[in-house]
UniProtKB/TrEMBL annotation:
UniProt protein name: aldehyde dehydrogenase (NAD(+))
Lineage: Eukaryota, Fungi, Dikarya, Ascomycota, Pezizomycotina
Molecular function as annotated in GO: aldehyde dehydrogenase (NAD+) activity
Entries under InterPro entries matching the protein: Ald_DH/histidinol_DH, Ald_DH_C, Ald_DH_CS_CYS, Ald_DH_N, Aldehyde_DH_dom, LUC3-like
Catalyzed reactions: an aldehyde + NAD(+) + H2O = a carboxylate + NADH + 2 H(+)
Length: 457
């Protein structure tokens, strides 16, 4: 009989067992600001025990035939399915987003060993599965470290996994700022998969270099104090588009998940011939987006996930107000005065190139637009960043859009669509937006070593 899974108590999972801690921490409900449930703070001994259990679990799992791994992970999926409604409610509580489930797929090679996956707060459930499933399918053991802002989904996901996975194969450790360095410097951990800011990603890479750990880095989340820009993905809109349709899609691409998407649209360049008309159409579309509790009917934009991000995004609103930038969607640019981390979405009309709203990744419901005239010049503007995660191109002629797309220095370009990631397709960043790939049939190779055997007659 499967164990009873409660969604109001949370534990670290070490060697197949629920483990509490002397210290606890808690997330905040971004909709209300209220404290959520206690989550355990992992100790150094917890890390040592988890690594030792992963080492024991890894060798027999690596020898398990690929088809059997697939069968076991399908059982894992079957164990999660009865709890999807519970996870929906849990994600709403800890993350605040209106939830949409997505797709997944897999492939194969020689496993690395133990993988430590360090997760961001903006997609706590999706990132946990995106990292652990290919790692396990490739034959590795995996330790997840959720963000302290959103620990609950990963903790509960791994608890459910214990119903079907061998002890120590998939573990989760929640904790404080000490936990990440313990994992990245541990000599028995073979790979780090990290999603977060470029500044932190560089520290992860530096720590991993001590033991030549493999790394996959998906870097776009921005800390304003850093000198490094964030993802800052651009949209280029050509003059021959269907303005009404494109305007609604541009707004969705900028404000989906309250703008807290690494590949979300952060800068919008619109051809000068249609600039004013498109901006007005975007304002109309933005006004239709209901802001509120993600559990309420019709809500499209929920709260920002945490107070830290809320305070950072407020700097952009304050800049717009101080400098009297022209804005759309609403009569004022006043900040939220209610409980919870809510902000009304805003479109900023043609701010200067050196303004924060242009140079920084927003990760919130505010986006700048600027006109363009010369195609080569707008491509240069779009590429004028140390980052290169994603972009969108909008044009009636797909061949024309493709010619622009091929000149953009990014890992993913979406033509005539807002950014829509799919786990079956590769996802990677150029320049300082990361190293390695996630998703797609080749994502398993990121969790493998290659071995070549030469035969001579």
């Amino acid at each position: 009989m499967a164990p009873v899974i409660r969604f109001d108590t949370f534990h670290n999972i070490v060697n197949g067992e629920l483990r509490g801690a002397k210290q606890v921490y808690h997330g905040l409900d971004p909709t209300t600001g209220d404290k959520l449930w206690d989550a355990p703070v992992a100790s150094k001994q917890d890390v040592e025990d988890a690594v030792a259990a992963a080492r024991r679990a890894f060798k027999p799992w690596a020898r398990t035939p690929f088809e059997e791994r697939v069968s076991t992970l399908r059982k894992f999926a079957d164990a999660v399915k009865p709890h999807l409604d519970d996870f929906t409610e849990l994600i709403l509580k800890e993350n605040g987003k209106p939830v949409k489930k997505d797709r997944e797929c897999h492939v194969h090679y020689v496993p690395l060993g133990i993988v430590a996956s360090i997760l961001p707060w903006n997609f706590p459930f999706g990132q946990a599965t995106l990292k652990c499933l290919p790692a396990l399918l490739a034959g590795n053991a995996c330790i997840l470290k959720p963000s302290p802002f959103t620990p609950y989904s990963a903790l509960k996901l791994v608890e459910i996994a214990q119903q079907v996975l061998p002890p120590g194969l998939l573990q989760v450790l929640g904790g404080d700022e000490k936990l990440g360095p313990w994992l990245t410097t541990h000599p028995d951990i073979n790979k780090i998969s990290f999603t977060g800011s470029t500044a932190t990603g560089k520290k992860v890479m530096q720590a991993a270099a001590g033991t030549l750990k493999r790394v996959t880095l998906e870097l776009s989340l921005k800390i304003f104090a850093d000198t490094t820009r964030g993802g800052n993905d651009a949209a280029i809109v050509c003059p021959d588009v269907d303005i009404q349709k494109v305007a609604a899609d541009l707004v969705f691409g900028a404000f989906f998940n309250t703008g807290q998407v690494c590949t979300g649209t952060k800068r919008i360049y619109i051809h000068e011939d249609i600039y004013a008309t498109t901006l007005q159409a975007m304002a109309v579309a933005a006004k239709k987006l209901k802001v509120g509790n993600g559990a309420d009917d019709g809500v499209v934009i929920g709260p920002l996930q945490n107070n830290m991000q809320y305070e950072k995004v407020k700097l952009l609103y304050a800049e717009a107000e101080k400098n009297q930038f022209k804005y759309y969607n609403g009569d004022d640019i006043s900040l939220n005065k209610t409980k919870g981390f809510f902000l009304q979405p805003k479109i900023i009309d043609n701010p200067p190139d050196n303004s924060l709203i242009i140079t920084e990744e927003q990760m919130g419901p505010i986006v700048p637009t600027q006109p363009w005239k010369d195609e080569a010049e707008v491509i240069e503007r779009a590429n004028n960043t140390s980052m290169g995660l994603g972009a969108t191109v909008w044009a009636k002629d797909p061949a024309h859009a493709t010619r622009i797309a091929e000149k953009l220095e990014v890992g993913s370009v979406f033509i005539n669509s807002s950014p829509k990631m799919a786990i079956r397709l590769p996802f990677s960043g150029h320049k300082e937006s990361g190293i390695g790939i996630e998703g797609g049939p080749h994502s398993l190779t990121a969790y493998c070593n290659q071995q070549t055997i030469h035969y001579f007659k």
